[in-house]
Amino acid sequence: MLIAMFSWSIYSALLKKKKYELSQITLLQVVIGFGVIILIPFYFIDINIGNQIKFDIPFFLILTYVFFFPRPDFFLSLDKRSWINGKANRAGVYLHLMPILGAIMAMIIFNEKIMFYLFIGAIFIVAGITLSNKKIRKNA
User: Fold this and answer.
1) Under a CB-based contact definition with an 8 Å cutoff, are residues 99 and 121 in contact?
2) Same domain, yes or no, for 82 and 112?
3) pLDDT in tens, 44-99
4) Quick one: 16 exposed, middle or buried, by C-beta within 10 A (0-12, 13-18, 19+)?
5) Sign of dihedral through CA atoms 89, 90, 95, 96?
6) Which of 4-8, 68-72, 122-126, 128-132 has the lowest mean pLDDT?
7) Is residue 9 part of a domain?
8) Considering Cα of 70, then 14, then 125, then 138, what sign does the dihedral take?
9) How many domains does the chain have?
10) What is the phi/psi pair of residue 80, to 5°?
């Protein structure tokens, strides 16, 4: 999770400073390509330690979620609209909801237990989003 957070922050910072003009679809293909390359060794390690893919209901629920919710056309339109309107920082704040949504999905799909630290993390995330969307009042 820490590596994912670090790589996303690097991606977000470098996206703003890009020097090469890439179309949105090309940029998306590059990001997906690097993601696949990074995940391939972990897949083979997982297979070598004896884990197999089970084609059961949780597998298809996760596959459906991955296919329909973070769709490339949504990513492209959100990214393009955010940069055009100059609101990329405000739109990006809501990406921090992903751990909360992931925890909720794990509870629903895998019957994970609700742990106290999940509530603490959710409180910090919601507080951060709330604070970042608050307008600063200038004292006159």
Assistant:
1) yes
2) yes
3) 998 899 888 888 888 888 878 777 766 565 565 555 555 555 555 566 677 778 78
4) exposed
5) positive
6) 68-72
7) no
8) negative
9) 2
10) -65, -45
